[in-house]
Fold this protein.
Amino acid sequence: MQHLSKLLKVDNSNLAWVLRLSLHGLRTQLQEALKTATTDPGSTACQELLRELDILLQEAFQQETLSEETVLSSQENSCWEDVLEPVTSELKDELKLRQLSEVLLSDREISNYIGDYQILSTHDSDLWNEMQRLLLRVPEKIAHIWQEQMLTQASQVGATEDKRSSHLSLPFIRNEYIYPGLKGKVKATGLYLSDQVDFDPRLMVKRHDGELDLLAGVVSICLKFIELDLSLHHALKSVDRFGVRSLNDEREKSKYITALIDRFRRVQTTADNVDPVVALRARLDLDEAIHSLVYLPCAERYSWWGKLQQEARRTLDSMVEKTRHAGYHVQIRPLWGTYADVFNWSKDDLQLDIGGVRGEVSACLRVYAKINDEVLPGRVLFRSS
């Protein structure tokens, strides 16, 4: 441990900073693992290791605090001309989280899910949100570990978690923090789901405590994310059947938004239709529009983003049962797994050369459905083999 301790205590070292971040991450991962591995034969040794890590990180923190106090004392004893910095220092102050973003993007596990990503933000407030949105695309377990590390590292530049006042609220059927904001030397908004916020006015729908509320919430979130996140694309066949298109293109963006809203309104107007098949078709079309809002690489299926889309898709089950009770034979099948096993159930699929697993489905844009003898093929994005 002596070399770890030595590097951790080096002042103004990027390598020391990276090591501290890595050790914080290791500590968090081991703490989480211990919660479910209490009978593991290595649990005692793991607890001892955690104590050693705590000592190392505490010593590093004390060293860093001492260095900062020395610098401040030196500045107080200097004249203003000695301590004033050029205008470029403003940019430095705005990018207190830059190192954290660089470490995040250099993590190979994260890169598997977000690809060769380039940070766009020039202010810390935007950078915090940009990094947090990236984590919404990776498996939730990995995202939670990184979110804890990010809060720890933010505290080292004088920022603390803010869950009370600094957040953007999105309409949904429950209250839930997606990620917190920051206060202190870095101020940034968080993201919050609220059952007290009105749905997007373009949907022209009020709350009624049913499945329509969930779908209105998901569509409202999709519409808001299109404004917030420049990384989003669409693969909606009715808008463009030949590729995955960036929503930075205003024409593509307008067409996709129009299609998404129109499909929601059709669900709304057919909800009480005498023929449940009409309502089922509308729900299938809306489900396709929701799942056709994608990232490249595609968001992992068990990420926050993937789970939100799956939550909307599960509402198809009740509609299928209603149609069956009316006397129709109905089958639906989400298409996942090896592409060779599902391509007979789909049509007009699109091939990707990034993300996912080679030869497997990266995103199920539309489920396969069969109503009596009529087949409605599914549609997928798949990784080339």
About this structure: The chain has 15 helices and 14 strands. The longest strand covers residues 361-366. The CA atoms of residues 212 and 342 lie 30 Å apart.
